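Lay summary. Proteins are chains of building blocks that fold into shapes, and those shapes determine what they do. In this project we predict the shape from the chain. Here is one chain we studied, written as its sequence of building blocks.
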Amino acid sequence: MSETKYGIIFRSSDDVDSGKDPYVEKFEKAGINCQVISVLNFEFINLTDLKSKLSKSELYSGIIFSSPRCVKAVSMAADDITKWENHRIFVVGEKTGKLVETDLGLRTEGGSSGNAKALAEYILKQDINKPLLLPCGNLSRETLSKTLNDGGIKFDRIVVYTTITNPNVESNIKEVFDKLKIRYILYFSPSAVNVTFPIFTKLGLDLDLIKWAAIGPTTESELLKHSVQVTIVAESPTPEHFAAALERSL
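And here is the predicted shape, written in a compact code that computers can read:
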């Protein structure tokens, strides 16, 4: 009988819910049992300033939503989101796009681009004559804003949430590694990579047999800085694309 394979999925707290995690399901179909560990928590900030900007929709060509947290911030701050119905609404990833459509009732575009750089390149091909409102987190990468800036697209960037490390992440990692022989680790963000690798070192964990996985190229780049071989990278941040990448690695 073959040995049971175990893995860890490092996600943010707002990605962990009571329902069945679709990424856990994809691992299970490949014969891998996964534990989900919440790495990051979030606090919303500058919502009054965001509210003011949202009330002046006539000054903008549209909004860029780079994460589900940005959608939630706008949902919390907006008095009348219908002012944006005739604006361009760009999103990074299909999950963020679905949230915008269900929570805000706005039509979106660019979701299939899958990552910030690809979305920025898509935006550069559009006819944009006013700035784009860009809510973001305090640890957001400069990829999107730099590409837009280099391409001559004006944007109004506002930080709407801060990222905080889950205080239980170290004890949760220790507990899982003490009980199970972990062979797969999937990351959803560069921030989670930066939080967990110092913990691995502190705990003296043996990582030689780990197969490393990233939800996209930005997270992959952060993993590579830690001198590990990333064998599983989803072409787009969806369970289906991840499953395809996982299958190729087996």
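What the prediction tells us: The beta strands are 5-12, 32-44, 62-65, 88-91, 132-137, 155-165, 182-187, 211-214, 230-233.
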